[in-house]
Amino acid sequence: RSAFKKFPADQLDKLLASGEYETVKVMHFVRHGQGFHNQRALDVGYGCQCKAEKPRGPCPYKSDEILDAQLTNQGKEEAQKVNDYLAENKNTKIEHVLLSPLSRAIGTAMIGLVGFDCDETGTKIPLQCLESLREQFGSHVCDKRQTKSWLETTYPSIDFSNLTSEEDPWFTEERETKQHLATRIAKFLNVAKAIP
Fold it and tell me: DSSP class of residue 170?
């Protein structure tokens, strides 16, 4: 039987003791810190206008200068809060880190995991990038990843072997549908389930 169950972290011991599940995996999902695309929307005073009946202006997410938007200073401060959380919650066990190939997510992890990127034996925790772990894709240039070789050069401590192409194969002019996004999430959960 396969089931995913959401539960508060403080109930983990109770869930394990219940014997209800053969295995339990705890996944922590962390949203990236503020990126320059988020700041751009704040600066112009509106978000995506692509499907607006009466657009307030051009879509702020389509500018080439925010390709694979990086973290702003505020985003870096937000990523530091992940690190602060881990410092305050020393019982948080990290065995695997799976990342989006977008720079703002990688940057958030690299700041958030400083000092927490090794297990109790001192072995480095693998940081693996998965193409499927990204926001709704298409149309918005900020959601287009850099080339694989750029990512490997810029972030040498990250494993990009799961990226199968040099260029972003997922970026299209059409926005990903919500249904496709839901299917992609379900596939990711099955991938996560298979991790030992």
Answer: T
CA nearest neighbour of 167 among 67, 89, 23, 75:
67
Q: What is the pLDDT of residues 83-92, one digit of tens each?
A: 999 999 888 8
> Could you identify the residue written with the tokens 């959401």?
6
Per-residue confidence (pLDDT) for residue 1, from 0 to 100: 43
Q: Which of 141, 47, 139 is nearest to 103 (CA)?
A: 141
Contact 32, 39 (CB under 8 A): no
Phi-psi label, residue 49: left if phi above 0, alpha if psi -120 to 50, beta otherwise:
alpha
The whole-model pTM stands at: 0.89
190 CB-contact burial (10 Å; exposed 0-12 / middle 13-18 / buried 19+): exposed
